[in-house]
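Please predict the structure of the following assembly.
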Amino acid sequence: MARAARDPEERIRERNMRLIIKAGIEIFARKGFDGTRIAEIAEASGLPKANVYYYFSSKEEIYTAIIAHLLASWDDALKYISPEREPAEAFKLYIKAKLEYTRKNMAESRLFASEIIQGARFLSRKDREHIRQVTDTHVAVVEGWIAAGKMLPVDPRHLFIMLWASTQFYSDFEPVAVDALKKPRLKADDYEKAAATITETILRGILRQP
Amino acid sequence: MARAARDPEERIRERNMRLIIKAGIEIFARKGFDGTRIAEIAEASGLPKANVYYYFSSKEEIYTAIIAHLLASWDDALKYISPEREPAEAFKLYIKAKLEYTRKNMAESRLFASEIIQGARFLSRKDREHIRQVTDTHVAVVEGWIAAGKMLPVDPRHLFIMLWASTQFYSDFEPVAVDALKKPRLKADDYEKAAATITETILRGILRQP
DNA sequence: TTGAAAGTTGACACTTTGGTCAGCTTTTGT
DNA sequence: ACAAAAGCTGACCAAAGTGTCAACTTTCAA
C-alpha cells in the first residue's frame, strides 16, 4: 500500500497547510474576507494557486479554518478570572495576558476584529454559543466576588467589554494608537504602559477603597 | 446661458451624491474597501452603475469623500473635554456623547474602524496630523486637571484610548457585544447602562477619593 | 524496484469587476 | 420656444477573479 509513513506524510501536508493559513491570516486581516484574493494568499505562501486549491476547496474553507484555529486558542487569557484568585490579582493578570496575546498575534486579532465588524458572517451558532458560555462563566466569578464584598457592584458584562475593548485596541487599531501615543510604532514598553494604566484605572474603579 | 438655477441645480446633484454616499457608508462598512463592489453601491442607492460614475470617477473617490465627511463630524464629542469644566462632568458628557454618536452612526463608525484595521491606507497625512493635534489639545487639558490636583496622575493618552475603545466597541463589534450582554440586539437602554458603567468605573479610577 | 497514493502545476473556463462611452432625455436661463 | 448644459444609462471592455483539470513529478510501503 502506498500510504506514506505517518510522520513524513503529515509533514508536507502540514507544512503547506500551515504556510497557507499563515499567509491567509495576514491577508484576511488586512483585506477582510471579500477583499482577499486567493492568488494573493498563494503568492504570499510561496505556492502556486492550484496548489492552494489542492489543500482547500474554497476561500471560505481557508477562512473558517483560520477562525476555528483562532477561537481554540482564544480562551486562554480568560483562565485568570477564576474564583480562587483575588480580583485585583486576577484582573491584573488578565489584562497583561490579553495585551501580550494581541501583541504577539496581531494579524489573528485583526482578522477576528474584521470578521466581527463585517457582521460575524462566518461565526457559527456554535462559535457564538461558545463565546456566550465562556462569558457567562466569568460573569459568575465576578458576581461571586461582588457578593463576597471583594468588589464594588459593577455590571460584569459591561466590565468585560471595557477590558476586551481596551486591550484589543492597541493591536487592532494600531495606526490610531500610534498617533494617539505619538510614537512611530508600538513597542513592548508601550504595551506595558498600557497594561499599567488600564490595570490601575480599572482596579481603582472596581475595588473597595482601602 | 444654460447654467441651471442654483437651487434646483444643486438639488439633483446633492440628492444623488447623498444617496451614493449613504449606500457607500453601509457597504464599505460591511465589506471594507477592497470587498466593496461599485455595482452593489449602485443597487443600494437605486441608481444605475453608470450614474454613480457620473458623480464619482472611481471607487476611491467615493471612499475618501466618505472619510472626509466623517472626520469633519468627528471632533464634536471631544468638545466636552475643555479646561473650564470639572473632570467628572467632562468625562461623563464625553462618554455619553461618544456612545450616542456611535449608536446613531453605526455604519460610519464601522467604516472608520474597518479603515483603521485595514491599515489606514486612505487616511492622508493631513488627516492623521489632525487626529494627533486634536489628541494633543485634550491631553493638555487632562494634564492641567492633574496638575491642579483634580485628577489622579493617569497617563492621558492611554486614558483616551480606554475611553475611545470602550465606547466604540458597542457599535463596531455589536455581534460580540450582543452575545456578551445576552441580548437579541442592543437598544437605547443598553447604551445607557454602558455609559453608566464606563462613567462610574473610569471616574472612580481617575478621581481623588472624597 | 515498483506502483499506487500524494503532491504539483500550467493552462484553461467561466464569472465578476472597475471603468468607459456614445447617444439619449431632462432641465433651465433667456 | 430653444439651445446648451446637466443628467442619465444600456451596452461594452479589458482586467482580474474563482475554481477546475489533466498531466506531470515525488514519495514510500511492500
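Residues 73-206 of chain B form a domain with the Tetracycline Repressor; domain 2 fold (CATH 1.10.357.10). Chain B touches chain A through 58 residues (CB under 8 Å).
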